[in-house]
Design a protein that fits this description.
By secondary structure, the protein is an alpha/beta fold. It has one domain: Rossmann fold, CATH 3.40.50. The protein has eight helices and twelve strands. The strands form three sheets. Strands 4-3-5-6-11-10-7 form a seven-stranded mixed β-sheet, with helices on both faces. It has a three-stranded antiparallel β-sheet with strand order 9-8-12. It has a two-stranded antiparallel sheet with strand order 1-2.
């Protein structure tokens, strides 16, 4: 009887171990499949480092207890939001690059000596509650991705009102993909049927706001070449309110590249990002802290 119970206990432990192994395997497989579906370009962002501040020691305690110093987490002042990445589509298709927005803002922190943060916004959820997106809350909206998508009429109208109210929209074709380029072209036509999308000339101020950009290093698949920068835009009044890049910027802002697609080199993508931010902030003196 004892041996029978002992074997049953061993069998139960074995079943428990096998179950846990299968559980870990299924979880890892599901993560791999999710990344495959998302068609993610770059690595996920690094975890934020914790900041700790030392504090005064405890009041003296009766001997032989020795007083100890304690530390606690200290939250630094939060910079204002500048860049808002739009969530859209299914299976997080908006997340083709994990940390392009973070990478760009970290770069301008060094080059432009200004500090901002980014956030993410579900356009469909926001428009249901707020018909108009405020440029004060979202100075720059940013959309990128690989695959085709579409917005409904309310979302299109909301984006147009946002731009007419002073906001700016940056559209990036991640990896230079034609699918999302066609979606961007369709979206722009729906927002501004009366305004043609045009290629920004080389004397446009966006190429001179911080860096003087006349030639850039670009890449199609594995081949590098030098060319004039390529950006398209829509003007509202005296400013360009919408920018479309058909050559990938987001991978460069994330700090990586690939041997496929159409893209700027990493260094030139970051320079283009500097100039875009500097140009947009020139119309937002309050945001720029000037």
């Amino acid at each position: 009887m004892f041996f029978r119970k002992y074997h049953l206990i061993r069998l139960g432990k074995l079943q428990f171990i096998i179950f846990n192994i299968l559980l870990v395997f299924c979880f890892s497989y599901s993560l791999a499949q999710e990344e495959k579906v998302l068609d993610v370009c770059g690595p996920p962002p690094k975890a934020k480092a914790h900041r700790r501040a030392g504090e005064e020691s405890f009041p003296p305690l009766p001997l032989p207890v020795a007083p100890l110093r304690r530390t606690e987490k200290k939250r630094p002042p939060s910079p204002p939001v500048l860049l808002v990445k739009i969530k859209y589509g299914v299976n997080k298709q908006w997340l083709s690059d994990w940390n392009d927005d973070y990478g760009l803002l970290e770069h301008i922190k060094k080059t432009l000596n200004i500090q901002y943060k980014s956030s993410r916004l579900s356009l469909s959820s926001y428009v249901q509650k707020n018909p108009v997106i405020s440029p004060k809350d979202c100075p720059i909206l940013y959309i990128t991705g690989h695959l085709s998508f579409s917005f409904d009429k309310k979302e299109v109208v909301s984006l147009r009102r946002y731009l007419e109210s002073g906001g700016t929209l940056i559209l990036d074709c991640c990896c230079g993909r034609n699918e999302i380029r066609q979606s961007f072209t369709k979206l722009i036509g729906e927002m501004f049927p009366d305004k043609p999308l045009y290629k920004l000339p080389l004397d446009h101020s966006v190429y001179r706001t911080f860096h003087t950009i006349e030639r850039v290093r670009m890449k199609i698949d594995k081949r590098y070449f030098y060319s004039e920068p390529v950006l398209y835009g829509i003007d509202i009044g005296s400013r360009t309110a919408l920018f479309l890049s058909v050559y990938d910027l987001s991978c460069g802002w994330s700090g990586h590249t690939h041997n496929y697609g159409k893209r700027y080199s990493i260094s030139d993508a970051l320079k283009m990002g500097d100039n875009l931010i500097a140009y947009i902030l020139s119309f937002y003196p309050n945001c720029a802290g000037l």
